[in-house]
Specification:
It is elongated and about 50 Å long. It has one domain. The chain has a three-stranded antiparallel β-sheet. Helix content is 44%, strand content 39%. The protein is an alpha+beta fold and 96 residues long.
Length: 96
């Protein structure tokens, strides 16, 4: 999925382009490997923000990577459990 999403900064929300890749790979008849990858690209709005705040792209990318990794580690198990529940019961898990 390709989207324009909010990136939360200390000075408010700015837009980034995000490519989400969700993959399910069969391991065996009872096991599937689920992966969730995120690729973010700065938008013109984000480049302007970085320029206005004297933030270099490498530092911004490192910060974005850390935030994305934390989010991915938190959410991926929830996505996987919901997909598993759908396969076993026909129902997705309800959001909290």
């Amino acid at each position: 999925m390709l989207s324009i999403s909010d990136s939360i900064t200390k000075n408010g929300r700015k837009k980034v382009q995000v490519l989400w890749e969700l993959k399910a790979t069969k391991i065996d008849d009872n096991t599937t490997l689920y992966t969730n990858e995120i690729h973010a690209t700065a938008t013109p709005e984000m480049f302007e923000y970085l320029k206005e705040h004297n933030i270099n792209l490498a530092d911004a990318a490192a910060s974005r990577q850390a935030a994305s990794d934390a989010h991915n580690h938190e959410e991926t198990p929830n996505f996987a459990k919901s997909i598993e529940n759908k396969a076993l019961t026909g129902q997705y898990n309800q959001p909290f």
